[in-house]
Amino acid sequence: MEKIIAEKLEEIEKGENVKIIHCIESGSRAWGFASPDSDYDVRFIYVRPLEYYLRLDKTSDVIEWQLDDVLDINGWDIKKALMLLHKSNPTLFEWNGSPIVYRTTEQWKRVSDIINGFFIRKSGVYHYLSTAKSNYREYLKGEQVRLKKYFYVIRPILACKWILNEQTPPPMLFTELAEKYLDDEIKPEIDKLLEVKMKSPEITMGKRIDALNRYIDRNLEELAETVKAMPEEEGGDWEELNGLFLSMIK
After folding, report:
1. DSSP characters for 22-55?
2. How confident is the model over 36-57, as pLDDT tens digits?
3. Using alpha carbons only, what angle is made at residue 50 by residues 45 and 56, rounded to the nearest 5 degrees?
4. Of 213, 93, 232, 219, residue with least CA distance to 160
5. pLDDT tens digits, 85-140
6. Between 109 and 33, where is the model more confident?
7. Which strands form 62-67's sheet, in the order they lie side by side?
8. Are 63 and 33 in contact (CB under 8 A)?
9. What is the mean pLDDT of the chain?
10. How far apart are CA 170 and CA 93, in angstroms?
11. pTM higher than the cut 0.85
């Protein structure tokens, strides 16, 4: 698959006249709990030639290259990426920290060197808390549930705990988060569920796990109260991002 993905990146560069400066895996494979039939969520950042950024007509800042049962490939223009970085967009921190890197460059290293300076803790906690709440509400309330969704709720809960304690963007790997912040009382349930998840199809259903639901209920309530009390934080410096952007498109 790495060879196929590398070929796809070359196709994109030629077909779109761009340079891909960073490309990673962003989904369950990067989180460390892929199912046998999980697709590959390939995400990339690209730079276009200078004249593209000087056009008067509206231009696109995303490339959606492929979406099928095996590959989900899309990317963001560097301008979009840096504008979202100023807002502390959590997706960028995940892309920067992915353990599966298909391609990276010195240009991206310059972004990576400064990226954590734009991290706003309160925004990060709100993002992961919202993700946990929506997945919990939609998938884990019935008698029969989609078992994989427990990870889509518990991982963001652990990410919130990481941000509150470490003051940095959370790591991608579920095991790294769980090792530090998962309660011992539910680790056996998680270990069993992880084994099922990595051996079963994506759509596997099962009986609701009440111990995990109680853990989720308690933590969602506590985190909601905690984030309300967090102080507001200033965003990063536009001038630093402007200088970085100009140096890349030149």
Report:
1. EEEE-SHHHHT---TT--EEEEEEEE--GGGGG-
2. 889 999 999 999 999 999 999 9
3. 105
4. 219
5. 999 999 999 999 999 999 999 999 999 999 999 999 999 999 999 999 999 999 99
6. 109
7. 62-67, 71-77, 40-47, 19-25, 101-104
8. no
9. 95
10. 8
11. yes
Q: What tokens appear for 85 in the block?
A: 């970085």
Which element (helix H / strand E) includes 168?
A: none
Residue type, 135: N
Q: Which stretches of the chain are DSSP H helices? A: 2-16, 28-31, 78-86, 90-97, 106-114, 121-139, 149-166, 174-181, 187-199, 210-229, 238-249
In degrees and rounded to multiples of 5, residue 177 shows phi and psi of -70, -45
Name the band, by pLDDT with cuts 50, 70 and 90, for residue 196. confident
Residue 201 in tokens: 């199809």
